[in-house]
């Protein structure tokens, strides 16, 4: 497993679609700009080679981005269209509503910080079992909640 401080959703989407993109595309779609370097492009090339050899490395992100502002949205829509077009339509509607709420709160500089914290904590609880036992280090926020897992 290779984990970056980058969007959880973006890394998962690229991991699922790794076969359908070049190493450069995968890197650009999954990583924050600070990580987009020649050296890491070589790493993504290596990851593609290993996958083709049947020894894949799993790409993971550990930052909670707002998924509707990221490349994950297009992956989710494409996948939902194949699985259930009706749900895809509902997803589009929900995402549009989230974007409107985000614009409103950004414009008015008002945030429900407690709601955001609850969302983050719920996401961590959802993902934690997947990484538990694999992690060698789990860093904690001052409030004691885990937020970064290094494998």
From TrEMBL:
One Gene Ontology BP term is:
response to antibiotic
Q: Which domain of life is it from?
A: Bacteria
Pfam families in the cross-refs: Erythro_esteras
Q: InterPro entries this protein is in?
A: Emycin_Estase
Q: Which SUPFAM superfamilies match?
A: EreA/ChaN-like
Report the protein name in the record: Succinoglycan biosynthesis protein
């Amino acid at each position: 497993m290779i984990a970056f401080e980058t969007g959880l959703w973006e890394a998962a989407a690229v991991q699922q679609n790794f076969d359908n993109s070049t190493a450069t595309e995968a890197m650009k779609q999954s990583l924050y700009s600070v990580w987009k370097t020649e050296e890491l492009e070589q790493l993504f090339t290596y990851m593609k080679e290993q996958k083709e050899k049947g020894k894949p490395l799993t790409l993971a992100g550990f930052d909670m981005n707002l998924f509707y502002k990221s490349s994950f949205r297009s992956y989710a829509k494409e996948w939902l269209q194949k699985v259930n077009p009706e749900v895809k339509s509902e997803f589009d509607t929900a995402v549009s509503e989230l974007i409107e709420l985000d614009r409103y709160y950004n414009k008015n500089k008002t945030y429900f910080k407690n709601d955001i914290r609850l969302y983050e904590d719920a996401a961590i609880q959802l993902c934690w079992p997947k990484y538990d036992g694999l992690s060698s280090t789990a860093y904690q926020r001052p409030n004691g909640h885990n937020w970064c897992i290094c494998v």
